[in-house]
């Protein structure tokens, strides 16, 4: 007994489809073979009765109707093997018969009136006396267009029906064997599907309990193979995300501890007193700097939280990209000067580069990208900012540096949340993830091309301003 589940459904569906098909074939086969046998017998008797009708006029010329042997000779002339021959008059009375038992009353079956009407009569039914199933074929015997007698052939259908019954039983046996084979095949097919599903379900249950090191083993094909690969990939991604999360927690703990340590140390030192105004000023400056650093870390985490919960609000307006990039360069100019890095802006748009967007959020994007370029560039190098027009009324901003670059191994992961190529470099690993989402909120795209030891190019593509561009405050959806 197959237990409830997809296996039973597969077997049941196969069984029903094949059973209905075989049943229909069985019915059609039985009817067709019966029709074939019956029609063959009818045609044989009808052809012989036609010969008898055609020969009757010659028979009359050779035999006088008043002769006592007239009907006996007629029976001998028109007889047919394994068939009872009856000569009837116009009223259906039996004048002669090859059957030793004469009917005691006129024949009233439907074939007789048909023969009297001038056509071939056919009747299938059971004889009143014996209950035997017979077929009767009657045809008129005419002289000069007038029906004189009716020749009636009667044959038993019992042996034919017996053969038909045997054929039916044989076909039922074949159908049952086919149905059994199909059922066995469907059980095997169901097991081949259910076993992998049960295996996948068991491993999925382990993953649901937190055992993400569990893997689905087996070379499954088609959709099951894709499902197994997807679940294995999901587990790998969860493990990787957990590792990234752990690294993030470790990194953010360090990032928070460092400024807090500085703030606490200087606040205690300043509280103790005894410092001249210059030292006090230095201490307060360090406290303010570390406080700004903490605020930046917290704001970055809050921005990411808003983006994840679809609560980021954009204040949409007209933004001049060239002016925005110039402001960005001014904001990072001091940091670039420390490493003697040259910043250069080139506008290739040959016209206006005004877009519809949130200027503060876009500035946040470009600040993050340019800050990263400075952070990972060599001293006395350069960073090139290029604005250019692209197809479909869009504008592209490229930030090109000749820094350390990113290996192919990490290139597809740098925009993932919490991911950091160098954990010693500081930060939360959220900057590029936030930038990516902010660009997408502006219906744009951000791409990164890099080669280790050569440099990195970050491209941000945004739609240009059109007359129908919305303004005002929008919420992420």
From TrEMBL:
GO cellular component: plasma membrane
Catalytic activity of the protein: ATP + protein L-histidine = ADP + protein N-phospho-L-histidine
MF GO annotations: ATP binding; histidine phosphotransfer kinase activity; phosphorelay sensor kinase activity
Domain annotation Histidine kinase: ranges: 251-466
Alphabetized InterPro entries for the sequence: HAMP_dom, HATPase_C_sf, HATPase_dom, His_kinase_dom, HisK_dim/P_dom, HisK_dim/P_sf, Sig_transdc_His_kin-like_C
Domain (HAMP) ranges: 191-243
Domain of life: Bacteria
Enzyme class, UniProt record, top EC level: transferase
Membrane-spanning parts: 12-37, 167-190
Keyword annotations of the record: ATP-binding, Cell membrane, Kinase, Membrane, Nucleotide-binding, Phosphoprotein, Transferase, Transmembrane, Transmembrane helix, Two-component regulatory system
Name listed for the protein in its UniProt record: histidine kinase
Cell compartments where the protein resides: Cell membrane
Membrane topology: Multi-pass membrane protein
